Amino acid sequence: MDVGGIVATLVIGLVAGLVARAVVPGKQDLGILATLALGLVGSVVGNLVAGLVRDGEVQFDLGGWWASILGAVLVLALYVSVAGRRR
Question: Where does the protein principally reside (predicted)?
Answer without folding.
Answer: membrane
